[in-house]
Amino acid sequence: DLDQNLARLSELLERYREPILNRIGGELVPARDGAVFETHSPTDETLIATVAKSGKADVDAAARAAKKAFPDWRDMGGAERKKLLHAIADAIVARAEDIALLESWDTGQPIRFMAKAALRGAENFRFFADRAPAARDGQMLPSPTLMNVTTRVPIGPVGIITPWNTPFMLSTWKIAPALAAGCTVVHKPAEFSPVTAALLVEIAEEAGLPPGVWNMVQGMGEDAGRALTEHPDIKAIAFVGESKTGSAIMAQGAASLKRVHFELGGKNPVIVFDDADLDRALDAAIFMIYSLNGERCTSSSRLLVQDTIADDFETRLAERVGRIKVGHPLDPSTEVGPLIHKVHADKVLGYMGAAQAEGAVIAAGGARHGDTGHFVQPTLFTRASNDMAIAQEEIFGPVLTCIRFSTEDEALSMANDVAYGLTGYVWTNDLTRAMRVTERLEAGMIWVNSENVRHLPTPFGGVKASGIGRDGGDWSFEFYMEQKHIGFAT
Ligand code: NAD
């Protein structure tokens, strides 16, 4: 319960009296110039730790360590890499409860979700561990004069830049395939959530990962992040974050011809037709926007509901949203915790008045929750139109925008009339309609009559402003590896 969680947390926080350092070549090191920044709890704004604030020289040291470690890691047999990655997964499982507590405290995400997210981090390692032995597999394509062999080789040291939403799980999702492919890594975690990233690399090295294979530099995006994207020894950048940061990284990486993989923002529609199983649609619509504080790239932040059922659906929705339990993130009964940072909570709250001025109605929530911490009430807007800011911009909080439609064509044109294209959710019991709509919906991932259920072998990624490239299955290896062709004269 909450008291037990708080007691364990205060034990864990003891070690953060010391600053969180970078990990370069297996060593814990401060920033070269001794600079630090602070990370605070979004729940009560207390200081959690000071953290190394890295600059160009620190990133350079990390990139050089990754370059030095690359040949041995590349040449290690896949079976041995598999064993090491499974050992990391085992170590994550052993520390999952502590990881979840620290992540909840550092980010404000409710413990009920973070406990699962930590275990999912272990799953990510296991999934790619099992694929490591086959990562280099290719084909023979004989011609009359040549025995043509295709194979894959790891691209080299890579940079991984991650955001603050479910940072532990997301970091494992990018780092595990890079390591399985034979790449070495420099990880730059988000400055709003530095705690579990430091724990993750520590766990990996304790589990036996050789020094320098995985380096971690903390710091700001504009300094440490930028230096990583510009570094000539870093061959590729896997980035998860905002669309505008993706654009900046593409420009920064241009001079050194970086390969990039972007998982960016979303403004994902959930389309509910009047023939759907409305009880299930209601549950899923609520779960997909109000879980994880709505700080989730795949959240269903736009509800497009058919006008024939809209009155009833919105009334039931408002009643349910009003009952969502907002509270301390370490309380297992909490459904929505504080948002990551004051700046972010203020941004989310800024939409409330603006939307009303544009003519939307607040059917639930709409204000700050409590006096301490960055809590925002779960909010439901109704009577919105698709051209409003709340229908076009990624709010990234517990805020759902409800828009009515009358025909399938209208639903589709509103669903697609947005800059983003990450996920879509379609609720209908008409199979041919489901096929028509999914075919025309502009999104990288679509679920029909389901919330977002991730199956790791399937491709994950978005279209339009939501990203470039796919993760999952073999797609991750395509990014972290180079195809190589060799023709032997016969
Ligand atoms: P952000 O873009 O502000 O920051 C992400 C990371 O990029 C941080 O580590 C930051 O320090 C770094 N960064 C910032 N500027 C940089 C620069 N110029 N060069 C290099 N690095 C730089 O994003 P955020 O606010 O931390 O995260 C929220 C965003 O992430 C949302 O838009 C969300 O939708 C998106 N996201 C997408 C997915 C997905 O899979 N599509 C998953 C999770 C989050």
Number of helices: 16
Tell how many strands the DSSP assignment holds.
Answer: 22
Q: Per DSSP, what share of the residues sits in E-state strands of 2 or more residues?
A: 15-25%
**What would you call the shape?**
globular
* Mean pLDDT level: 98
What ions, cofactors and ligands are bound? nicotinamide-adenine-dinucleotide
- Estimated radius of gyration: 23 Å
* Low-pLDDT regions: none
Q: Within the largest sheet, what's the order of strands?
A: 14-15-16-13-12-18-19
Distance between the termini: 70 Å
Largest sheet: 7 strands, mixed
Estimate percent helicity. 40-55%
Structural class: alpha/beta
Quick summary of this structure?
With 490 residues, the chain is an alpha/beta fold. It is built from 16 helices and 22 strands.
Overview of this protein structure:
This protein has 16 helices and 22 strands. With 490 residues, it is of the alpha/beta class. The strands form six sheets. It has a seven-stranded mixed beta sheet with strand order 14-15-16-13-12-18-19, sandwiched between helices. β1 (22-24) and β2 form a beta hairpin. α2 (56-75) crosses α8 (221-230) and α4 (96-107) packs across α5 (111-131). The longest helix has 21 residues, at 111-131. The N and C termini lie far apart (70 Å). The model has no long low-confidence stretch (mean pLDDT 98). Nicotinamide-adenine-dinucleotide is lined by residues 161-165, 170, 188, 190-191, 220-222, 225-226, 229, 240-242, 245, 248-249, 252, 263-266, 297, 394, 396, 422, 462, 466-467.
